[in-house]
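User: Structure please.
Assistant: Input sequence and predicted structure:
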Amino acid sequence: MLRVSLPAGFAVHDDGRMRVVAPRYELEEMVALLCGRGRDCAGEPVAGGRGGTRRVRLPGGKTVYLRKCLRGGLVRWFVRDLYWLRPERPLQELVVVEHARAAGCRLPAVVAVATEEVGPFYRGWVVSEEVPGARPLIDELASAADRVAVLGRVSAAIERLHGAGVYHVDLTGDNVLVDGDGRIWLVDFDRAFLAPANASKWCARGRARLWRSLVKLAAERSLELSEEAKRAVLGKSFEDAVPAGAAVFRRKT
């Protein structure tokens, strides 16, 4: 039994064990992908994150990302892919992403979600559209002529998201992409939630999470971040942030 209201145009396939939710015109294709035995080895694995993401080319030529929901933190050493809290996380992600896209935020569409009942628990999968030509934010910053301007566009994308009442709980450098036209895309909305627009606590937490991630990613490449970069990312919460380095993405000697 579904515990959330599905976005318009989506339909459900439910055989008692597997439940697949997808747009009506793609439901048959998504059932074939998600209900088959090879779903966890389809396509090619994608590096980064918690693992479990695969890049899959569908029979019609469309490329999607198939992500199996995997736990993080200490609990992952005991239970890797089982969940019990309802409504199911993939369904929540679908609803949040559709809400954000309807508000004008630039997010890849969720093509389908699926859950598999395992006693009182469930496993989950999310299928998302590919953003052609996109690369991680840290790669864009490392080669950009005006890095602070890039971060300004990232800040504007985050502001639009928060203005829609959508909050990303893991806003890291890996979850911000830049396409070939310089447009910013936000991805991986697992555990994201809806709340009143521009809630100061959640806005500050999301921006601070992104800043910490960028500092870490920059350090791994022997790069440094400037106060201007910090100000661009943190926005109004700039004064409360932890100080960073001096030069914008200059290699240490």
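Confidence is low (pLDDT under 50) at residues 241-253.
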